[in-house]
Every structure is written in C-alpha cells, then in structure tokens.
Amino acid sequence: MTSQVLYQEPIEEAIASLETWIDNHRQSNLFREYTFSSRSLALLLLQKDPSLWSALKQDEEQCREVEIVLTVAQNKLEYPVNLAIAQTRQQQARRLESIVLQETKRTQTSLTETLHRFTVNPLTGFPLLVVILYFGVYKFVGEFGAGELVDRIEGFYEGQINPIVNQITAQIIPWQSLQDLIANDYGIITLGIRYAVAIVLPVVATYFLMFSLLEDSGYLPRMSLMLDRLFKSMGLSGRAVIPMVLGLGCDTMATMVTRTLETKRERVIATFLLSLAVPCAAQWGVILGLLAQKPAALMVWGGLITAIFLAVGYITAKLLPGSSGGFYMEVPPLRLPKLRNILTKTWIRMKWYFWEILPLFIWASVFIWIGRLTGLFEMIIRGIEPLVAAIGMPPETAPVFLYGFFRRDYGAAGLFDIQQQGLLTGNQLVVAAIVLTLFLPCIAQLQMMIKERGLKTTIAMVLFIVPFAFLTGYCVNLGLTLLGVNL
Amino acid sequence: MNCHQCPKNNCTNQKSPGWWKLFRKTPRALELSSQDAQIALVGMPNVGKSVLFNRLTGIYVTVSNYPGTTVEVSRGLAQIGEQNVLVIDTPGMYSLVPISDEERVARDLLLKTSLTAVIQVVDAKNLGRMLPLTFQLIEAGLPLLLAVNMMDEAHRLGLKVQQKALAVELGIPVILTSAALNQGIDELKSALAKCLPSERVAIPA
After folding, report:
1. What residues contact B101, with CB distance under 8 A and at least 6 apart?
2. What residues of chain B lie within 8 A of the CB of A47, using their CB?
3. What CATH number should be reported for the domain whose range is A9-100?
4. CB-closest option in A1, A43, A216 to B64
C-alpha cells in the first residue's frame, strides 16, 4: 500500500526482521488468533504492547529473540523506540492534515473560547459551579422536583389512589392479613409503588434532566479541569472527576466508568469514594427535599459530606501505595445541547432506573409483609432501635434504616414520608441524611463493585462503611447536642 | 421490557433490572446467522461513534458530550443494502497500544475478531490528531473506512476537508458525515455496501 508510514531506518530494520520472525511463527499458538498484519504486530512488539509481551513471555527463547531486535534498534536511536514511532506518525499526520484541510476564514477568539476560559479558571469557574449547584440542583431538583412535584403527585396518590385501593381490597379480600399485602400501611400498592412513583420518580426525573443538560453542554470535563488540583491532592487524576460527577447521577454507572482510570490504585480509591460519600440522584433529591426548608441543616449536611469525601480521599491516597496517572483529557467543545437528545436521554435513564427500582420496592413490601406476619419484622426493628436511639432518632425511623440497608433511595423515601408527618426535628433530619448518604449503596452498585473490583476489596470496603456511617451519625448527634445547636 | 427505539428484536443492549441479573445471567441471544458480516466502529473518545451506531442500527446507547461515555461494547443489526450486518460500537481508543482497560477492550476486539469492515470515526475539527490511529489501522491491514464526522462543526469553524485528496493519500474510502444531524449516513451505508462480499458477486463479469 502506498499510504504506509515509513519510520526511521533502525526501526524499519527492526520491523523487517520481526516480520520475518512473525511470519515463521504464524502457526504457533501465539499469533494464530490475531488478525493484524505482521508489520503491525512487529510495531506493537516494538512499542512494548503489554498483552502481546505477556503472551510472548511464556516462551523465554522467543522473548529473548525479540528483545535483542528491540535493543539493537534502541541503541541506534536518540529517543525511546515508542516515542520515535509516535513522532513519525504525528509528523506524517500533520503533513497530511495540511494537504487536505483548508481554513477558509481566520478563527477568531470566539464566544465559546471566552466561555471555555470562564468555566476553567478557578476564579470564575468556582462561582459558576456554585451558581449551577444553587439553581440547577437546589432550586430545580430540590425545590421544584422534590418539593412541588412530589407534593402534588404524592398528595394525589394518598388522597385519591390509596383510599380507593384500601376500599377495594377490603371488599374483595376477606382476610386482613392478605389485605395488608396490597393495601394499608405497608402494602405493595400503597407503599411500594407509591414510593417509586410519587417520591423517587419525580425527584430522579428532574435530576436526570438537569444532569443530561450539563452532560451534553460539555460543562462536566471543564469542571474536571478546574477541580484537577483538588483531586491530585487526593491521589486521583482529574480524569477521576468524571466518574465522581457521574456518581452524582447514578453510583452504579459511575462504578463501571472507573474503568477509564489508568491505574488500579486510582480505580480502588474512586470506587471506595463512590460507595461512601457520593450521593446518587435519588438520595440527592430526597435529601434536598428533606432539608430544603432548613438551609442551615442543608449546609451542615453538605459541609460534612464534602469534608468526609476530601478527608477519606486524602487518607486512602496516603495509605495506598503508588502514584496517580498523568492527567490528559480530551476537552470536548461547549455545545448548545439539543432538546430532543436531552429528553431522549433523560427518558432512557428514567426508564432504566424505574424498572430497576420497581421490583425492588415491591419486594420490599412483600418482605415487610412476611416479616410482620411472622413477627420477624418486629424483632429486627427492636434489634435496631437501640442503634437508632444511639444516633438520636425516634423509634419510628428504625424501619427506615432497615429499608436503607437494601437501598439507600428506598430508605430516603421512607424518611421523607416520616418527615411529612412532622415527626423529625432539624437535628434528627441532618443525622439521618448523613447516615443514609454514607451508608451502603444499593444492591446494584454492590454487584457492580464486586464485578469490577473483586469480592475481597468489596468486603473490605463494606466492613469499613457500615460502622463508619453509624459512628459519624453518632458523633454528629453528640456534637450538635453538646453544642446546643438546634437546626 | 423492550429496548427504546428498537425496530426489531435485534437488540442485545437490553438492560434487565439489576434484580433480575441475580437469576438471569446471560442476555437473550442475538438472532444472527453465521454468514452475517460484522463491522466495527472505532476511534478516539468523543468523536461520535455511539451517535453513528444509533443512526446505523436504530438502537439507543447513551451518548454524551464527554470522552469515555462508552466503556463496553454494544452490538446491533443494521440493514446495509440487502443484507443484515452486525455493527459493533467500541469504547474510544487513542492508539493500538492500550493504556486503560476500556481501550484494551476495543483493541482486543480488533485484534481477535474477523471483521468485514472497520469504520474509523474521526473529528473533522481535529483531523491531525486523529490520523496517527488511522495509520496504525491501515498498517494492521484492516478493511478500513474513514468517516470524517462533525463536518457541521468544522464547517462553522471555516474548515474544509478535501475528501478526494484524503482518500487518495490514505488509499481508503473517505466519507464526510455529521452523524448528529443525520448527514452523510446514506453515503456511508453505500460505501459499506461495497465492502460486503455478496455485493461484489453481483457485479457482472
């Protein structure tokens, strides 16, 4: 082919001898399944491709032959071989670009460029972040989604649907215990589906809408750039901001995205922080809804979670050996998001999320029903009550923590329900919100953690998180009481 | 549960709820005959591979304006000419020598799968930065097509791409597209059709 890139003399010599060598070994186990040309495989070997070399190392003699060729080439070059190869390609690319790409008008420092600087510079970027958090998350998700929308839908559900369901089941099903499965206080329709549809769904919908907007505009990577230095002090590269920010949408997805991080150490730190201190969409929303009327309480919650995030991140980075990878990231252009794309994406995510939680919420109702029938529910609740009392919560919240064990958002929704009945003080709300945020993630995230990081690492993380969540709750409660603060 | 925007039952992308995964490990097998050709979408992160995948297969995979949204391989069927073709969307990669896990996924797929065609998607605005990967894919002897994407944005910046010159220099088919605006998709499909085996048979001797 005429378009083949020609490398420096010593490299071409090395390629030639490796090519012959590969052609002779084509039938061996090593190369048989590869579809690439011998020239390409030779270049991969010269660039020290990790998987090819680890396959090669099974046979020491082969390995030595290739190493000799590599050393010979290296000795004739000023730069490392892979750098020389990359340079030749880049030169060729630039030459070709200059032939085929024409600039018809001079690119002026445009509006997007100014905007870009504005978002990346900490002096302007940080206030912008605060503004976005205030209007986008606090006002839109917290007050509109978790306040207005939930009130309306929840009011409608409790006022219109629950009584009808209760009435119908009472008429059709003669047994009280079976009625309770579907209706009344803990029924599938009156509690399980109500939590999913009336509390969690509106919150998550507004949050995902907001999040998709930020995603498509190209703001998130700029935020990463701005926060890079902060993350570096925690042993994470700016690249890790992306999974963290994604975690604010859904921690399960974010745990999967930690794959984009370069080193195993970074992936472990990121996974740990995600499961401990990054609240997901449902939690955010419900907690914002809970604390929206009490800005001071919201500040305490936000401040503490941020502090824990930073402190734990810093300490883990110090404890885990190794260094963080360098930060280079594509910064995509700032774009005016297309409404249709955002709506589609929000819709897809909502659907995914809803189908994910609905069966779980229904199962929770069934389990509670079985537990109540057998008296097991009461027993477990009574077991948790001292623990709940230790962090200063009323006994009514014991079931909430039990739900929270299965899913944080289910627990948060339960808390929301209790708060609407006016049973909680400001202090109690803050403590509950903190414990639920720190507490174990949902089952889906746990599965993802096991899949990505392995069982051993996951268990270690869980063993830290559960006592830590309660201990923090205990300390916060103690602190607030000792200081005589009433939020 | 049906995948959004799935025209037929050709979607392996169905996300069953996590709760189900406890009981059902493997997703429903794709109805695919062994003769069907496979093509892969590759390229650097954030060049629009997933948008193009959506356009070709009608299957929605999450698209975002930042690099690294796709970390897993998605597969779906597309109709090219008379044939069904399996289209594979891959995570972004910078070079054939992988650095991170998701790059390795894409590279190993290329290295070990026999593909009828490989479409490298590039950002027209940053052509120079994308071409080193093109050279590597050509070196590997893969049946490569170049989709120069985001032409709308390049145009707005006053950039003009000489399609013919690029195709001649590289020795591979070059198609200009704006996948987000659905432009150039038909041209891409007809260029793909020329790579498929049965089309070649149809040419009279």
Report:
1. A259, A260, B71
2. 97
3. 1.10.287.1770
4. A216
